[in-house]
Amino acid sequence: MTVAVVLYTSDLRVHDHPPLRAALDGAQEVVPLFVRDPAVDRAGFAAPNRLAFLADCLADLDRALKERGGRLVVRNGDTTAEVRAVVRRTGAGEVHLAGGVTAFARAREEHLREVLEGDGCRLHVHDGVVDVVPPGDVTPQGSDHFAVFTPYHRRWAGEPLRTPLAAPRAVRVPTDVRSDRLPGRSGIADVSPGLAVGGEREGRRRLAAWLTAHGDAYEQRHDDLAGDATSRLSPYLHFGAVSALEAVQRARKRGGAGAEAFVRQLCWRDFHRQVLAARPGAARADYRPRHDRWRRGPEAEADLAAWREGRTGYPVVDAAMRQLAHEGWMHNRGRLLTASFLAKTLYVDWREGARHFLDLLVDGDVANNQLNWQWVAGTGRTAGPNRVLNPVLQGRRYDPDGAYVRRWVLELAGLSGPAVHEPWRLTGPERAAYDYPDPLVELSEGLARFRRGRETA
Ligand SMILES: Cc1cc2nc3c(=O)[nH]c(=O)nc-3n(C[C@H](O)[C@H](O)[C@H](O)COP(=O)(O)OP(=O)(O)OC[C@H]3O[C@@H](n4cnc5c(N)ncnc54)[C@H](O)[C@@H]3O)c2cc1C
User: Fold this and answer.
1) Start and end of every Photolyase/cryptochrome alpha/beta domain (predicted)?
2) Which of 11, 82, 198, 450 would be 75's cystine partner, CB 3.0–4.6 Å?
3) Are 381 and 288 in contact (CB under 8 A)?
């Protein structure tokens, strides 16, 4: 029997899975393998929400493989050592893996290649499993990546895409390969109470249901905080439970302005991935240094704590931060305005905010989180690096009736209409009736401080 190994990482699905297809085409038996590697946790993955969602995804992948006569093999340990052990046990001649963009993923690929080649086994790294258009496929003249989104999008949108692959009918797994127990959700502490259910089946269901119910209106409604009309597919995309390429193809097939706007957002995901692939250091270092003199010390620490806990005194900021704590997910408009509030109005280093997001976000992703933070903080290549979002105007515009704020900031639930965005305007006993903090800082003061710090004035 010829055997191939499929090493799963952030591609936890059976539909549209080029490594699985290639392995099945090239061998009679396949070992679908997932390694729970403590090094991945040490690199910052081990946030409770993502571990819980991962457990769902692995259980669902195992179910899907079992339906096809196979199973998922899970091993706890060092990735290279475990892959090598499986290769030696089965005599596998090939290992298939989806290509990654982080420095961690790149180093893992290199190490695997070296070790496996020494054992006479070939490593195949497949592009276009996690992304729609792989990093490096479209580049501007004279550079290895696009630094600006619009020209990238133009080129990206014209790229020919492959047809999504069907899920295999059968997967034969050698019987004598041992598996550790699948990790479960139970025993993971501090999971957000409103965390979504993970897995390919749920992701595919959501994609289909969302395209039908909300796809057409996406362009008009994607910023509507209370309407919550975006796809919420980000965690499924992050874990690869849904193929981004298939999502694009299905949206395009549907057509219309809503579908195109949704596809454009998926392009943002690839955009950040190609930046990170070319500049792995941008996960930490400013992509474009602005020589910031970020606030530090006890006062800045206290402001950061208030921001994390959703008690800045700006209702729409607090609502979004509380949504993050409760669901492990936040609406994109919320991410934009809370990030602007921290990095600009409070003038606290964007890395502090990005770390908090990564601690909680179920879709927390090095490329998309760090680079979106940089873009909002103005340390990325963005058209308006010093633009500051005004949380009151943002609230009035994207939550005109105040329903989003009332949903998350229960202390203010008794305030009707847009007045909920400015509780400090109330006076006397009316104000005293609301147990809600005063704003941490006046917006004009925050703006002046940011300008002084960045020397933009
Ligand atoms: C400060 C900040 C931090 C962020 N951190 C992350 C993160 O860690 N992980 C993450 O997946 N997204 C991140 N985003 C991007 C975006 O907010 C989320 O992808 C989106 O809110 C997820 O909701 P949705 O699936 O309903 O999106 P939809 O509006 O339905 O969009 C569809 C898909 O497009 C992609 N997408 C949408 N907007 C963006 C964007 N700005 N950048 C990259 N991809 C995008 C996502 O994969 C999303 O699932 C961040 C944005 C900001 C401003």
Assistant:
1) 2-131
2) 82
3) yes
pLDDT at 143 over 90: yes
Q: What is the rounded average pLDDT of the residues 421-429? A: 93
pLDDT (tens digit per residue) in 61-117: 999 999 999 999 999 999 999 999 999 999 999 999 999 988 899 999 999 999 999
Q: Cα–Cα distance between 116 and 109 in angstroms, integer?
A: 10
How many angstroms does the Cα of residue 30 sit away from the middle of ligand 1?
A: 34
Atom of ligand 1 nearest to the CA of 331: 21
Average pLDDT over residues 407-425: 96
Report whether residue 369 contacts ligand 1, using a CB cutoff of 6 Å: yes
**Confidence at residue 213, expressed as pLDDT on a 0 to 100 scale:** 95
β-pairing, 29-36 vs 122-126, is unpaired
Report the amino acid identity of residue 222: H
Backbone angles phi and psi of 432, in degrees to 5 = -65, -25
Ligand 1 centroid – CA 437 distance (Å): 30
Q: Tokens representing 335?
A: 């991410």
Cα→Cα distances 94→24, 105, 119, Å? 11, 19, 11
332 Cα: distance to centroid of ligand 1 (angstroms): 6
CATH architecture of 3-130: 3-Layer(aba) Sandwich (3.40)
- Whether 145 and 278 have beta carbons less than 8 Å apart is answered as yes
Instruction: Give, in degrees to the nearest 5, the angle at Cα 120 between 116 and 125.
Output: 50
Token pair 């003249």: residue: 141
Ligand 1 pocket, residue 323 CB under 6 Å? no
CATH topology of domain 298-454: DNA Cyclobutane Dipyrimidine Photolyase, subunit A; domain 3 (1.10.579)
44 band by pLDDT with thresholds 50, 70 and 90 = confident
Which position has the token pair 């020919």? 160
DSSP per residue, 356-368 = HHHHH-TT--III
pLDDT above 80 for 336: yes
The dihedral over CA atoms of 205, 206, 208, 212, expressed in degrees to the nearest 10, equals 140
**Tokens read off for 51:** 């571990």
For residue 235, the ligand 1 atom closest to its alpha carbon is: 11
Cβ of residue 324 lying under 6 Å from some atom of ligand 1: no
Which pLDDT tens digit goes with each residue over 357-367?
A: 999 999 999 99
- CATH number for 131-162+201-278: choose from 2.120.10.30, 3.20.20.70, 1.25.40.80, 2.60.40.10: 1.25.40.80
Q: Does pTM top 0.90 for this prediction?
A: yes
Q: Which of 12, 339, 371, 21 is closest to 171 using CA atoms?
A: 21
